[in-house]
Amino acid sequence: MNCINAYEEVLIGSIKKQTGSADRPQTTQKETNNCCLWVFTKPNRINFISIFIDQASAAAMHHFLSVLLVINGLHVSVQTAGRRSARSVNRHYRSWLTVSNGMNWGSWGFKDMCPSGMYAAGFSLKVDEPSYGFWDDNKGLTGIRLHCIRPSRASLGLYEDYASVQSEVGGWGQWTEIKWCPCCFLTAFQLRVESFQGIGDDTAVNNIRFKCSGGSLLHGDGTSWGEWGRWGPTCQGKAICGIKTRIEEPQGSGDNTALNDVRMYCCD
InterPro entries, per this entry (predicted)? Predict the structure, then answer.
């Protein structure tokens, strides 16, 4: 076996181990007549600790380095996104907003916050397309995404430079177009929720509305089941700056509802 074949065999084996425990890193050592390489793996991560190559043709070496650069590039892109989110989670908030008509299925996900100095001026929804067959399992709203900009950009209605944040989302549906406040930021919200349907098809949260600090209302492109509840309180502080969602995990052959409730965070 030559060095490149050994590399490919170890790489494939390492990828197959990605489902292992995140707290228990795995190592693989592969020896051939021409090379010895060690691979350190964790879920969603492949790091080549050391590579020793005694002999390899120029063409094989070029191929090896090209593949390695691609993998490293993928690794960097994944980790960069994770670091940005991890930093924003720790942002200080002044208050949080809730509504009274959320449902209780599922569990609360993680809190995700706009980057420091930015506030939510727009939102988009992940919506399960409605179907009306007798045995169809509709989920309604399956996710909410906030889009954050800086005050200097919001006052001018400039939305090109924004950061998106979201908590847990369901696996069904497609994202809608972003809706932006004509001026300034999101400050309050209201949910459209379907109550418990007994033996019928439950959908829980189906739509959302937001108030903007400039006085405008933004209506989401969700579904029409259920009823609108009361508006939640208005932000104490400048505007909404973070979100946490309550999501029901997939129920297999049972009745799926996905998004059940939302909490918004407000920052000065």
Answer: VOMI, VOMI_sf
Angle ∠(147,148,150) on CA atoms, nearest 5: 150
Tokens of 19: 């489902």
Q: Which two tokens stand for residue 63?
A: 């191929």
Measured distance CA(263)–CA(34) in Å, rounded? 58
The string of DSSP codes covering 151-163 is: HHHHTTT--SS-E
Task: Pull the structure tokens for residue 242.
Answer: 């973070």
Phi, psi at 125, each rounded to 5°? -120, 150
pTM of whole model > 0.70? no
> What integer pLDDT is reported at residue 94 of this predicted model?
96
Q: What is the CATH number of domain 109-267?
A: 2.100.10.20
φ, ψ at 91 (rounded to 5°): -65, 140
**Do residues 146 and 114 make contact, with C-beta atoms less than 8 angstroms apart?**
yes
pLDDT < 50: residue spans in the chain: 1-87
Alpha carbons 245 and 229: distance in angstroms, whole number: 17
Q: Give the list of residues 6+ apart from residue 101 with CB closer than 8 angstroms, or none.
A: 191, 193, 227, 229, 230
DSSP letters spanning 91-125: ---SEEE--S----SSEE---EEPPTT-EEEEEEE
Determine the pLDDT at residue 88: 61
